[in-house]
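Batch manifest line 403
LIGAND: iron/sulfur cluster
JOB: complex structure
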Amino acid sequence: MSGKMSFWFDASACSGCKACQIACKDRHGVEAGRLWRRVSEVSGGGWKQEGAAWRHDVFAYHLSISCNHCENAICLEGCPTRAISRREDGVVLIDQDVCVGCGYCSWVCPYSSPQYDAATGVMSKCTLCHEDLDLGLEPACVGACPVRALDAGPADELAAKHGAPPGAAEIPPLPAAHLTEPSLQLAPHAQAGRSGEPEVELTPRPPRGLREWSLVAFTLLSQMAAGVVLFAAGFRAFGQTQDPVLMPLAAALMLVALAVSGMHLGRPRRAVRSLSNWRTSWLSREILLALTFFGAILLAWRPGWLAAQWASAPAAIAYLTGMAGVYRQRTVPVWNTWRTPAAFFLAAFELGILGSSVLLIATGGLRVTPLLSGLLIAAVILALFRQIRRRRDYYSRYRRIGI
Ligand code: SF4
Ligand code: SF4
Ligand code: SF4
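JOB STATUS: finished
ARTIFACT:
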């Protein structure tokens, strides 16, 4: 066998029987609820009035999609632990002894391929049955298809054998091929041209597996910590002495945020491995910048250490930039805009200013009337609720992207 491996799929031939999906589960012992290969129905159309008559133009066809062992695999680029690698023949694999179960590969994959295995706390996905390929056998899903709608093998051989038209593997609801360059050749269904229509449905949709509460808590607490540090820098810029309670507040917020972020991992004891892929992974960079920021706050704690206090402000800005980089990924178009960093910086300023003001009032560093202090406390609670709602909305928009 030579050349990069690829899948070939004929959407016109597929009957939606799901034999490939079941054969894959059977071959790899994947439990109910987790799918390495997913057969989805693309359907659309409706009733239309033509004169006195009503006619329908409904359509439905199926797509059988697994990991596409992409040439430009964003999962590999984004994985903070370097658990994902690509073999010489193009097969993309997850090393489950290295994975921390952060789920980031699943976030950024536009095909939702990596699946969280709750039993082991790590990710898993299609391996292209590489053990079978190495023995010259075909993958289980390919062998199980009763209508030969699926095939796998070296890309050039598949192209010569089936001659799939170029560009068909990115017809909606499949994502644009330039995002990851999937190893997928596809013969489109006759109705594929209509699959971009607004009322078209894809069922079932893959689960996104975002463990949201810890992500929401982590981002909001650490944004507030960054905001408190920037608020303190503002105080100093106007010639005021920094109040001694601000850095302890920022440190406490950051400590809780880091502890909460560990709860997001399937394998928290391996967390330190998340620092290893800072060259390509924004998640790795974010964690490094978060730890640097935390260290800068601890150094700035001592009232006399002015240089450390000033250094904590750029550390906060770098950290917020790193956090935005985690979300601004080319495969998540709704997040990949300037609005993402803008929203994170605005949230940091809002939460930081309000949180600092309340603490200063409570500790006597700022004297205001009881009415104003009550209003400020109410504003902090409202701001937190609004940010939580915004963040949940942010994640819910994410779910509508890709297949
Ligand atoms: S389909 Fe997703 S998981 Fe598979 S190689 Fe491409 S980006 Fe990675
Ligand atoms: S460490 Fe995270 S990104 Fe890497 S494979 Fe595991 S879950 Fe995916
Ligand atoms: S190639 Fe193997 S692992 Fe991948 S979907 Fe087919 S049966 Fe499953």
